[in-house]
Amino acid sequence: MKKIQMVDLQSQYQKIKGDVDAAILNVLDSAAFINGPEVKQFETELQSYLNVKHVIPCGNGTDALQIALMSLGLEPGDEVITADFTFAATVEVIDLLQLTSVLVDVDYDTFTVDTEKLKAAITPKTKAIIPVHLFGQCANMDEIMAIAKEHNLYVIEDTAQAIGADYKGQKAGTIGHIGCTSFFPSKNLGCYGDGGAIFTNDDDLAHRLRGIVNHGMYKRYYHDEVGVNSRLDSVQAAVLRHKLPLLDEYNAARNKAAAYYTAAFADVEELLTPVKGENTTHVFHQYTLRVTNGKRNELQAFLTEKEIPAMIYYPVPLRKQKAYDSGNYNDADFPNTDKLVEQVMSLPMHTELDEEQLVYITSAVKEFFGK
């Protein structure tokens, strides 16, 4: 049996090695390393895949979120609501821009933002919402867009973990005013370094975004606003061009592995398997269980002994992180987040999982629970 990895990028690469190597060599031969033709071609192809008017490639997913916020003309102190249970990048960019992050609880079953808590958090200072499509499925975008319309708020979708997912037939990241994604290597659509992109159907926002990613320039050496230097390089675009046509196949492979896990654990009462939300497909960036008997850490240690990696995303809620602890939150408002950080555990999930590995992983988990 092959060594089990959380993400097996080596085996995935071997299957596309010829095409990818040739594409990278083509970029090296052209020496068009920044804003080369591969970047523009990938931009056009991703627009077509997502059925969105504008894709603006950038340096990474965190930059995508920061640039999206910069494009909205917000003022220091303006409030942006997002989930307490997610990776830090989502709140990091809010605070970096001297905006005020407002964290709310998530739904216990789907791990995405609780829309009732979201509504309750809105104040006259609220200007935007960043729903996070966590672990591979969309948040409740119908409710979120209705709330945003009622209160005249912007919606920036954090789609770093859900590219390729559909919400009522629309691709994740194309429903709000702006969508953002990451091409970090372990993502469902990952490059071989850092990379990211921003999506929008709004022509005016697209114009602003294109300037901000390039030092605030719309004409070379004429800086109309404060921008950043955040570009997807041509080598990464070349890799992504060859992986994009495989994205649906990759996501299908993840779903197949997820279905195997879920079926295998049907009789393990101490485990809650992932729940799919209404109106959304799931692309299983992670396969995240909830261990309800208080033995999550023991299970992780047991699997480690058997050389099965298992990760905890995320062990500390953002409101309790040293960098983001404002002291303004009441733990009673976060029952689901506080339960999840004690229960969640993610099993290996990637495109290369084979049946032998899945049998070994699921048998080990069931052994721990005496099944």
UniProtKB/TrEMBL annotation:
Keywords: Pyridoxal phosphate. Gene3D superfamilies: Aspartate Aminotransferase, domain 1, Type I PLP-dependent aspartate aminotransferase-like (Major domain). It comes from the Bacteria. The keyword Lipid biosynthesis does not apply. InterPro entries: DegT/StrS_aminotransferase, PyrdxlP-dep_Trfase, PyrdxlP-dep_Trfase_major, PyrdxlP-dep_Trfase_small. Belongs to the DegT/DnrJ/EryC1 family. PANTHER family: TRANSAMINASE, UDP-2-ACETAMIDO-2-DEOXY-3-OXO-D-GLUCURONATE AMINOTRANSFERASE. This is Cell surface polysaccharide biosynthesis protein. The gene is porR.
